[in-house]
Design goal:
By secondary structure, the chain is of the alpha+beta class. It contains ten helices and 18 strands. The protein has helices at 15-26, 75-81, 84-89, 120-132, 175-182, 187-194, 254-259, 265-280, 323-326, 329-343; strands at 7-11, 30-34, 46-52, 58-64, 90-93, 111-114, 135-138, 145-149, 152-157, 160-161, 168-171, 198-208, 219-220, 227-232, 246-252, 286-299, 311-313, 318-320. The protein has a six-stranded mixed beta sheet. Helix 1 (15-26) links the parallel strand 1 and strand 2 (30-34). The two termini are 17 Å apart.
């Protein structure tokens, strides 16, 4: 079994990065976790909306604008969700599908949902380590430079260098963001990351007056048109709702999002609002709405189930994990993190070290 490094920088605080940080801290390793966002979660994302209503009153609401939820097929991922920090942060969601929707895959089981918001799972993983001092964090830190010196690795963002040196650096980022950091140190990895296909997604989110008729569904998956998911966020477990308002989250299909990837946000918002009204068969009385562009929403489907891949070079102390290596969204991110931890000598809950896929 390899001896893990003593001090590690983890870049990226989505589920893969948070999983690595938590396991490393539990093993007594000093971890510095950084992310370009203001907190953990990555695509497990919830956003606060603020607006002024027709009466001039300041209003606010929170909606989940990243992953709608996730499934758990791998037995070790299921075990992870049922124990430790994750057990209190995640619960099954028996979502009610609208008539005519594309079905959810029955074999994948119920959707899993962090509560009270999507980043709650990552926060729970990090809480124990930060409370003991084993994990330090730097938010709004978009790492853009890795430098390897005799003393170890240094990590910088726009000229600001993290204090000290690190025995290893783990990248838990979308491949297009990992590639520039890898280029000077592992050009073969950088090349592979640069051509890894990730699907984009434009997301419309907002609040509106109540619909003209009561809807008995919480999720719709239209079988045609630009919309992939339509969600009533207030119907999700543990979510607060602004009284008398519908909380909509609408994810566009990858093909439509790619076609409109560089279009102005206001244009995309109008198109998605019109598509939602068309699908519902009635106008939506919006009070406030915005859009968000996810450039790297999901790996392109390979047609395979969950896998456990990660890249690790013990010689250089550099590793990479993420859902583009793990195969399937949130679960894939976790499986990839487990594969990387196994190569570091730290297999996580139920992890199978023999499934790790080293890259030299």
């Amino acid at each position: 079994m390899p001896t893990p490094p003593k001090k590690i920088a983890v870049i990226g605080a989505g589920l893969a990065g948070a999983t690595c940080a938590q396991a490393l801290a539990a093993a007594g390793i000093s971890v510095h976790l950084v992310d370009k966002a203001r907190g953990p979660g990555g695509r497990l994302a919830t956003r606060r909306l603020e607006w002024t209503d027709a009466q001039g009153q300041a209003r606010s609401a929170r909606v989940d604008h990243g992953a709608p939820g996730f499934t758990a097929q791998d037995p070790t991922f299921q075990a992870f969700l049922q124990q430790g920090p994750a057990a209190a942060a995640v619960q099954p969601w028996a979502a009610t599908l609208a008539a005519g929707s594309r079905p959810l895959r029955a074999e994948a089981g119920p959707l899993q949902l962090p509560v009270p918001d999507m980043p709650a799972l990552c926060r729970a993983l990090l809480h124990a380590g930060t409370a003991t001092g084993a994990i330090t964090t730097s938010w709004s830190f978009a790492a853009d430079t890795l430098t390897r010196q005799p003393e170890g690795w240094q990590v910088a963002a726009q000229g600001t260098v993290l204090p000290g040196h690190f025995d290893a650096v783990l990248l838990a980022l979308p491949p297009a963001q990992a590639a520039p950091l890898l280029a000077a140190h592992k050009p073969d990895w950088a090349q592979r990351a640069s051509i890894a296909l990730m699907q984009p997604c434009w997301t419309l989110m907002g609040v509106a007056g109540p619909p003209s008729q009561e809807r008995a569904w919480s999720v719709a998956r239209p079988d045609q048109g630009p919309l992939a998911w339509v969600l009533r966020n207030e119907a999700k477990p543990g979510r607060e709702a602004a009284a008398g308002l519908a909380h909509w989250v609408v994810h566009a299909r990858a093909s439509w999002s790619r076609q409109h990837l560089e279009h102005p946000a206001d244009e995309v918002k109008a198109l998605l609002q019109a598509a939602l009204a068309g699908w519902l068969g009635e106008a939506v009385p919006w009070q406030h709405a915005v859009v968000h562009r996810w450039r790297y929403a999901l790996p392109a489907s390979t047609g395979h189930g969950p896998v456990r891949h990660a890249w690790w070079s013990a010689a250089s102390g550099l590793g990479v994990c993420g859902d583009f290596l793990g195969g399937t969204g949130v679960e894939g991110a976790w499986l990839s993190a487990q594969a990387l931890l196994a190569q570091l000598g730290l297999p996580g809950p139920g992890a199978r070290a023999e499934s790790a896929h080293p890259a030299t």
